[in-house]
Write a structure and sequence with these properties.
By secondary structure, the chain is an alpha+beta fold. It has 13 helices and 17 strands. The protein is globular, with a radius of gyration of 20 Å.
């Protein structure tokens, strides 16, 4: 198939699509995108089709992938089944699992991957039962459609159970605001973790798997603000992380980049969620690894051998959130790489990132963080 692929059709047209296209172009492939939002960052790199132009998007593409995990499964399935095309990677079963926190955690447990204790909740009564069974505090989440901490309620006391149900209960009937698809809520036991980490791995069409190092993630107001790559003092966690993500990749017969987010606890790693796509916590790899997550994803999708995931130099990725900072001041520091997403400024929106890769890492990161604050 590799030789007949010229154009990759990507579901979604955000910054992830833009960076996938940057990697694809380097390897000789073009990308087109399926995206309804106006001013999609990826438009700078290829034609953007709206969902009502699906036929034209299909005609323009030789193989399909995605950069947006809430891509409608129905659309994904229809693309995957087109016999005259090269398929959809990752497979739609991965998309289905990743779109439903209950299915995701059930799969983790089926594969003997540790999770927090959890229960499905479909009524106020069931929420009260969950609070008794799991204990308080607990975290109530929509099982579909949540992102960046949205669709979540941390219940600390019995008095808050009613408010939590009032806020999220609508998701059970489809009136919850985040998606139109009715689905039970998930109640999760609250976990005391020391830090949050993620592992990104890529699986090729022949089943070959390569792993990026475990990285440490920091959030501000529920949004990823900083990734430290590799995570410090994490060697003892690497085997468990690789085993976990390796099991998921093989079970799903996955092709492409997959991300697994985990909590670090005294008793090891607890899996939180997967993203069936390239991930913000892997942006450091553009400069910090021999082959970036974006290039490796494209390689997997078109059937090329995977590239080297090893770290060139420790790096720290800082997201630019809300407003752009002065590029002159940022780039006055050496060992700093700026990525601008061509998005309008808006509070809480990821509009760019900076990767710091220098011997004076801590000092330079502190200086850049000051510029971003
Ligand atoms: P999530 O959308 O599942 O990634 O959750 C967003 C954030 O909430 C995570 O990054 C954690 O900081 C926190 N969180 C989520 N689930 C739990 C849990 N069960 N216990 C404690 N903190 C949690």
């Amino acid at each position: 198939m590799t030789n007949s692929i010229k154009t990759i059709g990507i579901l979604g047209g955000g910054q992830l699509g833009m960076m996938l296209a940057q990697a694809a172009l380097k390897l000789g492939y073009r990308c087109v995108f399926l995206e309804d939002a106006d001013n999609a960052p990826a438009a700078l790199y290829g034609q953007v089709f709206k969902y009502d132009e699906l036929d034209d998007f299909i005609a323009a593409s030789d193989v399909f992938t995605l950069e947006f995990e809430n891509t409608p499964v129905k659309t994904a399935k229809s693309l995957a089944s087109l016999e005259h095309k090269g398929g959809l990677f990752p497979p739609t079963n991965a998309l289905e699992v990743a779109q439903n926190r209950l299915a995701e955690k059930a799969l983790f447990n089926e594969l003997s991957i540790d999770t927090v204790p959890f229960m499905a909740v479909e009524s106020l009564d069931e929420l009260q039962t969950a609070a008794k069974t799991l204990g308080l505090p607990l975290v109530l989440k929509t099982s579909r459609g949540g992102y960046d901490g949205k669709g979540q309620f941390f219940i600390k006391t019995i008095d808050e159970i009613g408010a939590a149900w009032d806020e999220l209960g609508g998701a059970v009937t489809g009136d919850g605001g985040l998606t139109d698809t009715p689905a039970p809520l998930i109640a999760e036991g609250f976990i005391n973790f020391s830090r949050e980490v993620s592992i990104i791995a890529v699986r090729a069409q022949d089943g070959d798997i390569s792993y990026y190092p475990l990285v440490e993630n920091h959030h501000t107001n529920g949004i990823l603000s900083k990734t430290i790559a590799p995570a410090a003092d994490a060697d003892h966690l690497t085997e468990q992380a690789q085993s976990n993500i390796g099991k998921i990749l093989s079970h799903l017969d996955y092709v492409g980049v997959l991300t697994l987010e985990l909590f670090v606890t005294d008793s090891g790693l607890i899996a939180n969620e997967i993203a069936p796509r390239v991930h913000n916590s892997g942006h450091w790899s553009i400069e910090g690894a021999h082959c970036s997550q974006f290039e490796n994803h494209i390689r997997a999708v078109v059937g090329l051998p995977l590239g080297d995931t090893q770290v060139i130099k420790p790096s720290v990725m800082l997201n630019i959130i809300g407003t752009y900072s002065d590029a002159h001041l940022v780039l006055a520091h050496s060992g700093v790489h700026l990525h601008h997403y061509h998005k309008d400024e808006r509070a809480g929106r990821k509009i760019g990132h900076i990767t710091v890769m220098t011997d004076a890492l801590d000092q330079t990161v502190a200086n850049i963080e000051q510029l971003l604050s």
